[in-house]
């Protein structure tokens, strides 16, 4: 992934190279509605993650301002619009921007450490908000959203905002270019973003590497094409593909198993694609 860009879109995404910005002195004067959002623990894309209009429930769900007890993993699944050519933070953000009819249904994979089943995930799994990750007893599961459109603008999740008491010039420079720096395991978009958060220049490291949890020894337990079907013709309420309570409807379209050839020991796992019209509706409280 490129560390910065010099194309015509970079000012929109705030990931221009410093020399391009210095040449035109085109510092950003306002916050961008685009946020770097995870597709998985090691891949992120820019998404439209605000909701300036639409129903109150959709705004809360889009901007993830719901109570912790109402936080659902659906809030963390970005969706791509074939019409706008942009990713949206979740299906509620797409609804806020009138993109529901143009959404490309994402392919989603869930992989877990050994001996975790769907039943165990739904019964005792504890979702970690914003991380596409569940803790399941002593194990864990991760959710991966596949960028099948290959049109997402890749990004590094980093600190991109200044403290409220920062001066306007530093805030503008923080928003305008990409030159990742780290300090104390925190990744900042650029040195100005670090400085306006109280970091000393002498403490910065020009290293974009950020410590990331790498989940090893996972097996795929679900792989499906998600259809955010509407419940009772209410667009802000969507189906939950995982917690489908009707066993018959959630059985597979097909399953297949990889098995080692003769004389070779190999892992075997069942790759299940679930029925994409489940029975469970998800609605956050207003």
TrEMBL record:
<protein>
    <recommendedName>
        <fullName>SMB domain-containing protein</fullName>
    </recommendedName>
</protein>
<keyword id="KW-0472">Membrane</keyword>
<feature type="transmembrane region" description="Helical">
    <location>
        <begin position="251"/>
        <end position="270"/>
    </location>
</feature>
<keyword id="KW-1133">Transmembrane helix</keyword>
<keyword id="KW-0812">Transmembrane</keyword>
<dbReference type="InterPro" id="IPR053231">
    <property type="entry name" value="GPCR_LN-TM7"/>
</dbReference>
């Amino acid at each position: 992934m490129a560390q910065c860009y010099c194309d015509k879109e970079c000012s929109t995404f705030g990931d221009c190279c410093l020399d391009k910005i210095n040449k035109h002195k085109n510092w950003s004067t306002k916050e961008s509605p685009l946020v770097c959002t995870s597709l998985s623990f090691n891949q992120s894309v820019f998404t439209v993650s605000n909701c300036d209009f639409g129903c109150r429930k959709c705004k809360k769900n889009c901007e993830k301002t719901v109570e912790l007890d109402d936080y659902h993993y659906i809030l963390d699944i970005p969706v791509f619009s074939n019409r706008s050519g942009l990713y949206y933070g979740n299906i509620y953000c797409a609804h806020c921007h009138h993109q529901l009819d143009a959404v490309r249904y994402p392919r989603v994979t869930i992989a877990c450490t050994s001996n975790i089943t769907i039943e165990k995930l739904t019964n005792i799994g504890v979702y970690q908000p914003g991380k596409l990750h569940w803790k399941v007893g002593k194990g864990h599961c991760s959710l991966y959203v596949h960028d099948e459109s290959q049109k997402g603008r890749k990004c590094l999740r980093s600190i991109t905002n200044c403290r409220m008491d920062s001066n306007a010039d530093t805030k503008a420079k923080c928003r305008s270019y990409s030159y990742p720096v780290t300090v104390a395991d925190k990744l900042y978009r650029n040195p100005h973003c670090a400085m306006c958060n109280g970091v000393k220049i002498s403490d910065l490291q020009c290293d974009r590497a950020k410590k990331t949890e790498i989940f090893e020894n996972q097996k795929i337990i679900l792989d499906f094409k998600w259809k955010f079907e509407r419940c009772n013709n209410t667009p802000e309420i969507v189906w939950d593909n995982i917690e489908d309570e009707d066993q018959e409807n959630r059985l597979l379209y097909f399953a297949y198993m990889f098995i080692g050839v003769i004389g070779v020991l190999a892992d075997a796992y069942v790759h299940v694609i679930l029925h994409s019209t489940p029975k469970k509706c998800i609605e956050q409280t207003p």
